[in-house]
Amino acid sequence: MSENYSMFPRMYSESLLYVDLVDIVSAYRKFFKLIYLSKILGIREAPLSKYASGKIKPRASKSLSMVRALTSIDLVKKAVTEYIKNESLLDLLTDVYFTKLIALSILERIISVFHGSRVEAVLASSEAILIASHLSHRLKSPLLNLHAVRGTARLKNLGNSIIILVMADNEIVKELSRIKMEGRRTDIRYIFSLIYTKELTTLSSIFPNAVVDHLVGTLAYGHKI
User: Which residues pair with 124 in a beta bridge?
Assistant: First the structure.
């Protein structure tokens, strides 16, 4: 069982794994046909349809292999790009299935960065709260809204923390820079931004020990927010 699931009791982790599989397939089906997913997974469309509808529950090992395949970063990038192309960014950020897909796609990365040590806090911009809440639940870590608690003592000690953003902007950079200067124990280990902006590069210089990831490039002019 992946470390993502092994942190939970066995029966719960197996049920959670299956729920994840169903939710992930539901996310992809918004823009991709089931036959496309079946080809990626190397299984026939009929059993995949039964898995997705709850008619058949696959073995935990099979569910895990399918979840891993469907949360590969390249495939998620393609799905997110398709979503933003066809719907508004706000739609994506309030879509429970797609925000969960994004969270699961970076969860394994976060776990590998921390090598078993605890994530003490998940910091998120207001717009990224839904993505961050999935991660906070899985990591069993407190979730802090950067916009809600900025300037407060709650941001002074951030050892072993991660940051989840929709996009980095000057306001976010200034706040995180202040945290870095004032924090007695600040160890940001992972920074994720859904959309790349030049400010993300600035953040990586403020926290040079952090792994920095993003999914899509800067939004084109005129895109629906």
Answer: 145, 164
Domain locations in the chain? Answer: 3-70, 89-216
Choose the CATH number for 3-70 among 3.90.350, 2.60.40, 1.10.260, 3.40.50.
Answer: 1.10.260
Query: Nearest 10 degrees: CA dihedral of 144, 147, 149, 154?
Result: 50
- List pLDDT tens digits, range 189-207: 999 999 999 999 999 999 9
* Distance (Å, whole) CA 129 – CA 225: 17
Q: What are phi and psi of 159, to 5 degrees?
A: -75, 140
Between CA 69 and CA 66 the distance in angstroms is: 5
Q: What is the pLDDT of residues 42-93, one digit of tens each?
A: 999 999 999 988 888 899 899 999 999 999 999 999 999 999 989 999 999 9
- Cα torsion at 123, 124, 125, 129 (round to 10°)? -150
pLDDT tens digits, 88-142: 999 999 999 999 999 999 998 999 999 888 999 999 999 999 999 999 999 999 9
Does the model's pTM come out above 0.85? yes
Instruction: Indicate the SS3 state at residue 164.
Output: strand
The encoded tokens of residue 51 equal 């898995």
Q: What is the CATH number of domain 89-216?
A: 3.40.50.2020
